[in-house]
Specification:
The structure is a homodimer of 188-residue chains. With 188 residues, chain A is mainly α. The first copy, chain A, has ten helices and no strands. The structure holds a DNA duplex (30 and 30 nucleotides).
Chain lengths: 188, 188
DNA sequence: ACGATACGATACGGTTCCGTATCGAAACTG
DNA sequence: CAGTTTCGATACGGAACCGTATCGTATCGT
């Protein structure tokens, strides 16, 4: 028996992600379509996963990108880095897939948990950068960290996952968001 | 011939919204289920709409809430009002339904257009409040209006549609978001 | 080289939903 | 009140997919 994962496993998961990235919805995704795409018999899939949900959870785990590493120099620059990483994955398919998962995350506790497991480390990183800024005096002492995280990540998620503000340039948006939140809108 | 909409139309659309609000996804929604729920024959539905998509678009139009009216006194208070209305609809079913539509809006130009038609008046309202603030000197003269709108609406959408930050109280969030964006996070 | 295993393909019965057709009852029309 | 239309219900053939079973082949360990 080989200790490496059989090639079929890989093909099945890749086919799943490909189909999702091509626009198939989670529930429109059929085992038969995955099997055909992977060049695999249906039975091979059922031999490994009890059903579509389990396969999907395994496939989505592959999308988890790397967590960025703040430099620790400037709070502003670290925030730009982290905000730029919101909703940003190495796998280009992720950008297409993630919006389709919104209903699933709202419905299924398993998907919600998977989602939380992926983003919580990044949230913790941003939390620490904000606390560091408060400690060093770069940020207001009375800052509400949770609300500030929402201010920073909300606009990026809206842009990356929902693509709802066509007029915003995604490349420079992280800088604009961070600077906007840092400086505030009120005249002085 | 009566000039009022037949009662069947209403029952069909209500049944559609009810089923969606109960957690059915857009594509899991079947004409047969709608017909049964509405106490109507399938043929009655096909007599009025060519298919599921057209029915769905008509049904979703019903969810469009009223556009809030800024008072024009304080820019801050007007923003709190508008931000509080983001993702907020009169019909309580809307809160359940909207997250399920994210994939549809990304996929179908029709749904995207419908969505834009609903939110664009509200966005325009917020744009005008921000411009008024710049004019009266309440807001910075060099404010990027589009980015600021993203800062204000992004966090609320994340909270209302994805229910992402469980620790944030949704009732006071609009105030916190507006004040956070207005005042900025940088110490001074 | 050979026996065990895992594989791809395919067939199967069962289920759900599609979109159409039909039919008697009920509701309008004049 | 009779004629016409619309309705709810139901039946139908077709399609897609489920999860299982089977079968001949290719791969792998020894």
């Amino acid at each position: 028996m080989s200790d490496m994962t059989s090639a079929a496993d890989e093909a099945i998961i890749e086919a799943t992600l490909d189909l999702l990235a091509e626009g198939s919805t989670v529930e429109a995704l059929s085992i038969e379509a995955i099997a055909t795409r992977a060049g695999v018999g249906k039975a091979t899939i059922y031999r490994r996963w009890p059903g579509k949900d389990a396969l999907l959870l395994d496939a989505l785990r592959r999308l988890k990108g790397i967590v960025p590493q703040p430099t620790g120099h400037s709070v502003r620059d670290d925030l730009v880095l982290l905000v730029g990483a919101v909703g940003h994955n190495i796998d280009p398919r992720a950008a297409k897939i993630m919006p389709c998962l919104v209903p699933e995350v709202n419905r299924s506790p398993d998907h919600f948990q998977l989602y939380q497991n992926i983003i919580e480390p990044r949230r913790q990183l941003m939390r620490e950068v904000l606390r560091r800024g408060i400690r060093t005096g770069e940020l207001r002492a009375d800052l509400d960290v949770e609300v500030t995280m929402a201010l920073l990540t909300g606009p990026m998620l809206m842009q990356r996952m929902l693509r709802w503000h066509p007029e915003l340039d995604e490349r420079i948006l992280p800088e604009k968001v961070v600077d906007g939140v840092l400086e505030g809108s009120r005249a002085r």
